[in-house]
Recover the amino acids of this structure.
């Protein structure tokens, strides 16, 4: 399996194959049965099935002619007003092939469209309602102008939970004949945070080097330190072993190739599991936020991380 990305290979083609969005799938199924639907807006984090659901709706509506009745654009690449005026309008003004009275235009990452392009899109949505339906996909619906939001039915997607991620991993491992232990599956979930696309890409990267996938493989390839290693660093700092904590932090960063921002995010997650009071946890979270801001502004990574560890030791 080298010529095809797993994310595409395992993209569902039926509603029953989509995991984790049961309520949204149920609503979409009704639209397909009626062969009619409003403009739709899919909002949610990356890798949870927005593009997949749009493609499944199109496949189920148009069957074999779905390619001819779908225009798929990535708005982060083609985000100007000229795209709306040319590509979108040219496609929208022609009739659909088959017994469904409309075509579908899928705009991925539509929150990257400029305000001018969104205004032009609003007029296009009004003028071509008879021949076209729009599905707009975005990570942040607040970046879409209100006139477009009011013309669309909102579908809000949520990250996949642990059981759903495990189910997807089991399906892929069975078809690809991979050996994955329970700890590796747990690591995949922790690293992906419910992002199915990341799960599949990590699985493919791990499978390229070995057939048996372990927890160590997952963390190594994803360039993320094990949670227990981060927790050990913080516990050393709390026990007033500042130099030991500092040395282990530097070793961990070098071992996994982590940047300062990467390690800060993991520290912030592990703070809540430390055996200290709630007030102390709140103070440390506040310090994590302050140090992250300094790193984003361009401060030296090691100095800032040492400063953060010193706050743990000061407890």
């Amino acid at each position: 399996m080298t010529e095809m990305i797993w994310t595409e290979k395992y993209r569902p083609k039926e509603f029953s194959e989509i995991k984790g969005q049961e309520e949204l799938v149920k609503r979409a199924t009704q639209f397909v049965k009626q062969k009619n639907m409003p403009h739709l807006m899919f909002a949610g984090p990356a890798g949870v099935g927005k593009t997949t659901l749009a493609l499944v709706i199109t496949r189920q509506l148009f069957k074999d002619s779905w390619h001819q009745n779908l225009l798929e654009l990535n708005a982060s690449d083609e985000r100007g007003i000229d795209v709306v005026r040319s590509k979108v309008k040219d496609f929208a003004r022609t009739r659909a092939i088959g017994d469904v009275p409309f075509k579908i235009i899928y705009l991925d990452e539509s929150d990257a469209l400029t305000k001018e392009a969104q205004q032009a899109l609003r007029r296009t949505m009004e003028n071509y309602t008879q021949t076209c339906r729009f599905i707009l996909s975005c990570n942040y619906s607040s970046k879409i102008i209100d006139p477009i939001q009011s013309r669309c039915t909102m579908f809000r997607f949520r990250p996949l939970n642990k059981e759903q991620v495990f189910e997807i991993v089991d399906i892929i491992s069975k078809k690809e004949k991979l050996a994955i232990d329970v700890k590796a599956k747990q690591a995949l979930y922790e690293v992906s945070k419910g992002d199915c696309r990341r799960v599949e890409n990590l699985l493919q990267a791990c499978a390229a080097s070995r057939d048996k996938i372990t927890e160590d493989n997952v963390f190594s390839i994803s360039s993320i330190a094990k949670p227990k290693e981060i927790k050990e660093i913080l516990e050393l700092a709390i026990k007033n072993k500042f130099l030991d904590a500092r040395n282990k932090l530097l070793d961990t960063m070098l071992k996994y190739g982590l940047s300062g921002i990467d390690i800060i995010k993991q520290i912030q997650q592990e703070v809540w599991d430390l055996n200290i009071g709630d007030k102390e946890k709140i103070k440390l979270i506040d310090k994590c936020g302050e140090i992250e801001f300094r790193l984003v502004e361009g401060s030296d990574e090691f100095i800032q991380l040492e400063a953060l560890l010193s706050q743990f030791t000061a407890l």
User: Anything to note?
Assistant: The chain has a mean pLDDT of 86. The beta strands are 39-43, 70-74, 103-108, 132-138, 152-156, 179-180, 212-213. The longest strand covers residues 132-138. The chain has three domains: 21-156, 162-222, 227-314.
